[in-house]
Amino acid sequence: xxxxxxxxxxxxxxxxxxxxxxxxxxxxxxxxxxxxxxxxxxxxxxxxxxxxxxxxxxxxxxxxxxxxxxxxxxxxxxxxxxxxxxxxxxxxxxxxxxxxxxxxxxxxxxxxxxxxxxxxxxxxxxxxxxxxxxxxxxxxxxxxxxxxxxx
Length: 151
Known about the structure:
Helices cover about 60% and strands about 15% of the residues. The protein contains 3 helices and 5 strands, in the order H-H-E-E-H-E-E-E. The chain folds into 2 domains: about 1-85; about 95-150, no CATH class. The two termini are about 20 Å apart. The protein is an alpha+beta fold. The strands form 2 sheets. Strands 3-4-5 form a 3-stranded antiparallel sheet, with helices on both faces. A two-stranded antiparallel ribbon has the order 1-2. The mean pLDDT is about 75.
């Protein structure tokens, strides 16, 4: 029985390491994505300026250029404003064999069990793994403290 628990804990540690790697990769690629979007906006502005310059007579070119700059500045501001929206409130509910529990409940139980098991340690990071077929919540806290609690 202890051997099975050790295997499960090792599996949990491996899963946590894999998840951490995935998050680091996503964070590293975020600036590149942002740069691509900025480059696309710049290209769009340049094409619109060129099109406006072709349509306008020579004397009205200066007026059209300032108008184009103002409208592109407004568009850029509008895009920035839409990206600063409030975070969406979410809830995760697991239903399994006439049982129902939320992610928040599982986190609270894991935190409480950590405090019982590791008195005096500060909780800095907590990853949970829910196994409804075993009616257990496994956790890895601070990358080195492992345990479980009943659902």
